[in-house]
Amino acid sequence: MTLTQRIKAFTELGSLISNPDENLTATISQAKNANAWFTFESTLNSVKNIGQMLNNEDLTKWLTPYDNSSITPKTVGLVLAGNIPMVGFYDILCVLAAGHKALIKLSSHDQQLIPFVLNELIKIEPGFNDQISYTERLQQFDAVIATGSNNTSRYFEHYFAKYPHIIRKNRNSVAVLTGNESAEELGRIGHDIFDYFGLGCRNVSKLFVPENYKFDFFFESIEHLQPVINHHKYCNNYDYNKSIFLVNSELHLDNGFLLVKEDERLSSPLAVVYFEYYSSIAGAQDRINFLANDIQVVVSAAGLNITPQLVKPGESQHPKLWDYADGINTLEFLSSLN
């Protein structure tokens, strides 16, 4: 299969899932039966975002530098995450785009959507059929891309040590506020916090704010996202963390659906966002660069000189094809296997 054929097939797939038909819509509706976090709205949003990513212009720009016409196909084992809908699809896309075979271990939390979409890809281009297989336990592979928690990543590092590999750990995303943001910009940052209920590594879990920052305008600007509290699992987390703060007499702010607490840590509990004061933008930049290995993206309307990827408000969950997780060029890794 030529690179042109791959790009054409991925583009057709993108068009298909950007405008889901009845069968795909039904599969999206069923996702919540296996995973309560996968509401119809969240799952549809994820599917459409992937569809928009798969456009001819971006695919051509992304793949043209990687000539796979003479590649010797390798079998790449994929251990997929399941924290947000179809989050593992990107790694599959990279493997297929590079001309390799994807041996897929699906997450137990996301077992319907990815096979459905890949089956649609095979209908578009039957040549992909021999490049896709599923397994419950990885065996007979040449390389591995695995995503897990900090605990499971240590197991992955040990188990896959002798194979070429990419092992991904927990990361979090942060936002830097200057106090000059408009209501619209803060509302978009609200989406960076709440989309997919804050379960993704690209969700903002911490805010860096100037000294003496007042959160009133921030809370007003994200009020339209209040319906998140109607999801029973989110609400349970909100109630639990609120009770912990109250029992322990920990200072916090509460707008009825989000808890905001000063804390130096990056990773906040669900329904909680941590914040940290900075005395200058330069100081905030230094702090972020120090924490760079634990940060996925930084959201800010301000221009910042930082190591992690910087995105505008509202764009944390809309990566481009070349916005590689953890800053590791997955296509370059896969091309090196040849």
UniProtKB/TrEMBL annotation:
<protein>
    <submittedName>
        <fullName>Acyl-CoA reductase</fullName>
    </submittedName>
</protein>
<dbReference type="Pfam" id="PF05893">
    <property type="entry name" value="LuxC"/>
</dbReference>
<dbReference type="GO" id="GO:0003995">
    <property type="term" value="F:acyl-CoA dehydrogenase activity"/>
</dbReference>
<dbReference type="GO" id="GO:0008218">
    <property type="term" value="P:bioluminescence"/>
</dbReference>
<dbReference type="InterPro" id="IPR008670">
    <property type="entry name" value="CoA_reduct_LuxC"/>
</dbReference>
<keyword id="KW-0521">NADP</keyword>
<dbReference type="InterPro" id="IPR016161">
    <property type="entry name" value="Ald_DH/histidinol_DH"/>
</dbReference>
